[in-house]
């Protein structure tokens, strides 16, 4: 079934950018606009052109450089504002002028101090003036949710007659509730005789936390354009969030009988860019893009998710550009989650190693009780710091390493293996490399070293070395610390090899 296309009008660079502390310079705005084009928005509201020379320049550069979406900017119903927008958006492939003028009695009496008829005339004159400069004109009836219905309809009819191509119905103060708001849009579409000559748009704010619900109710009632911002940024409690609306339409397309042209895999990259450039962090539990949106933390959920993701996820993280779901380890996590996270780090425990896993689980619980979250670092420690967990196939007996100022090094390493001592020599560019060469001769394992990380505690002179070895698409991690960095490295390497042979015992050469 061919669903109705909903135009996504992004106002992150205008309503979103009005947030204190979120303002962007021209280059940053252009960067965001390019990303919005990649995301596939239909319209970019690039700014408020008359507000400052900087914003005018940003809108103009976006109009020149960003291809694909309609480019618009906001103007009050005054000629100088309209001229500024017309000039700034002129280079765009598809320019639009967006005019805003209030329709509620509150705004008429306390903002404009004008009668309904006077304001209506102002609006019509503004559209007629703008129409001479640009063909695509959007008209916003500011504070529509608190406006008299009959006056709202009269205004919309008049501005469409004057040439408006889009009529935007804003819930400027976030006062609407979904059922009423949807009903208002439905009645309005029925009541305005020339409504078919323009597209109906909605623009909702989140003062009561209902911006997304209200926008969706309006779409269900027939709105064809939705105005929103990335991460829900915007005046006060923000605007309707683009990612929520788009994903709700995608996940419930059958209910809304609608679709958008958004490339949903670009949602997360766009969200990250916006939060970083606008210095606006996103709350962890924010739908779609928050850090916890695809994270599972309770044991019951983790077990269910690992058995079958759809048990606890309605959408795949990859669909919104997030790499993968997260299993967060806390004191509420169970064995299934712990095993999964350990396996991701290369620590695989077979059925024969059940006792080892149980010991690690007990240790995990005591760490989890002390900490809010157990992270990968903690897991490495849990496993590697305790020689009892993994049978020590290779046990360091002795070593000796020397180096010259010419960058040549020699090492001798003696390792105890299955009741006998084996000694080998190695050469290399550093004592550590030489020692690793000697170990490779002793163990003859087919693994490769993937990563070596060394950190030092300056004051106490302790070096901590982490080594990751790779074998057969699995990683095995070893960690060790010592005041002697060569010894710590040898021990970390042997620890990682002990992990490897604990699982692949067939690799041990007699
Ligand atoms: O909230 C509002 O009414 C606006 C208009 C400019 C659409 O931002
Ligand atoms: Zn707004």
Structure in words:
With 510 residues, the protein is an alpha/beta fold. It folds into 3 domains: 4-278, TIM Barrel (Alpha-Beta Barrel); 295-381, no CATH class; 394-504, Alpha-isopropylmalate synthase LeuA, regulatory domain (Double Stranded RNA Binding Domain, 2-Layer Sandwich), CATH 3.30.160.270. The chain has 17 helices and 18 strands. The strands form 5 sheets. An 8-stranded parallel beta barrel has the order 2-3-4-5-6-7-8-9, surrounded by 7 helices. Helix 8 (211-220) links the parallel strand 8 and strand 9. The radius of gyration is 32 Å and the shape is elongated. The chain starts with a strand and ends in a 7-residue tail after the last helix. The structure holds 3-methyl-2-oxobutanoic acid and zinc ion (ZN). Zinc ion (ZN) is lined by residues 15, 170, 172, 203, 205, 235, 239.
Kindly list the characteristics that best describe this protein:
single chain, 510 residues, alpha/beta, TIM Barrel, Double Stranded RNA Binding Domain, 3 domains, eight-stranded parallel beta barrel, three-stranded antiparallel sheet, 17 helices, 40% helix, binds 3-methyl-2-oxobutanoic acid, binds zinc ion
List the helices and strands and how they pair.
Layout: E1 4-5, E2 7-10, H1 26-39, E3 43-45, H2 53-65, E4 70-76, H3 79-89, E5 95-102, H4 105-112, H5 116-131, E6 137-142, H6 149-162, E7 166-171, H7 178-191, E8 199-204, H8 211-220, E9 225-228, H9 242-251, H10 253-256, E10 258-259, H11 267-277, E11 295-296, H12 299-307, E12 326-327, H13 335-344, H14 354-370, H15 376-384, E13 394-403, E14 409-417, E15 420-428, H16 431-443, E16 448-457, E17 462-471, E18 474-482, H17 485-503
Helix pairs in contact: 1-2, 1-11, 2-3, 5-6, 7-8, 8-9, 12-13, 14-15, 16-17
This protein binds 3-methyl-2-oxobutanoic acid (KIV) and zinc ion.
The site of 3-methyl-2-oxobutanoic acid has 10 residues, from β6 and β7.
């Amino acid at each position: 079934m061919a669903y109705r296309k909903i135009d996504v009008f992004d106002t992150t660079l205008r309503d979103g950018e009005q947030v204190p502390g979120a303002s962007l310079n021209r280059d940053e705005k252009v960067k965001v606009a390019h990303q919005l084009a990649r995301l596939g928005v239909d319209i970019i509201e690039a700014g408020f052109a008359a507000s400052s020379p900087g914003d005018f320049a940003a809108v103009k550069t976006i109009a020149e450089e960003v291809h694909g979406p309609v480019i618009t900017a906001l103007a009050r119903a005054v000629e100088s504002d309209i001229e500024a927008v017309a000039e700034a958006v002129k280079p765009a492939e598809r320019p639009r002028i967006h005019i805003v003028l209030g329709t509620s009695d509150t705004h008429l009496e306390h903002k404009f101090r004008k009668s309904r008829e006077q304001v209506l005339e102002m609006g019509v004159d503004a559209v007629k003036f703008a129409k001479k400069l640009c063909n695509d004109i959007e008209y916003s009836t500011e504070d529509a949710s608190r406006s008299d219905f009959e006056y709202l309809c009269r205004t919309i009819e008049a501005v469409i007659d004057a040439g408006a191509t889009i009529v935007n119905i804003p819930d400027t103060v976030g006062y609407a509730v979904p059922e009423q708001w949807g009903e208002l849009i439905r009645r309005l579409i029925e009541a305005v005789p020339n409504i078919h000559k323009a597209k109906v748009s909605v623009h909702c704010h989140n003062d009561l936390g209902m911006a997304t619900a209200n926008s969706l109710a309006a779409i269900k009632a027939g709105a064809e354009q939705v105005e929103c911002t990335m991460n829900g940024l915007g005046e006060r409690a923000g605007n309707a969030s683009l990612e929520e609306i788009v994903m709700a339409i995608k996940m419930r397309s059958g209910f809304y009988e609608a679709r958008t042209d958004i490339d949903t895999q670009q949602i997360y990259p766009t969200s990250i860019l916006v939060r970083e450039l606008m210095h606006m962090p996103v709350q962890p539990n924010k739908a779609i893009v928050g850090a916890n949106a695809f994270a599972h933390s309770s044991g019951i959920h983790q077990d269910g998710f690992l058995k079958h993701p759809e048990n606890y996820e309605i959408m795949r993280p990859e669909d919104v550009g997030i790499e993968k779901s997260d299993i967060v380890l806390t004191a509420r996590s169970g064995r299934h989650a712990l095993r999964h996270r350990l396996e991701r780090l290369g620590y695989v425990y077979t059925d024969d190693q059940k006792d080892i896993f149980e010991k690690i689980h007990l240790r995990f619980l005591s760490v989890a009780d002390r900490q809010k979250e157990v992270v990968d670092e903690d897991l490495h420690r849990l496993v590697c710091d305790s020689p009892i967990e993994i049978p020590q196939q290779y046990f360091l007996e002795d070593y000796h390493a020397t180096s010259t100022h010419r960058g040549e090094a020699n090492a001798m390493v003696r390792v105890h293996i299955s009741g006998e001592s084996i000694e080998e020599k190695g050469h290399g560019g550093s004592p550590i490399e030489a020692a690793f060469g000697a170990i490779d001769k002793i163990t003859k394992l087919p693994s490769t070293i993937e990563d070596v990380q060394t950190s030092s505690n300056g004051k106490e002179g302790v070096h901590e070395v982490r080594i990751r070895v790779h074998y057969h698409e699995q990683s095995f991690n070893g960690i060790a610390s010592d005041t002697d960095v060569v010894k710590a490295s040898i021990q970390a390497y042997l620890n990682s090899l002990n992990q490897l042979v604990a699982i692949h015992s067939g690799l041990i050469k007699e």
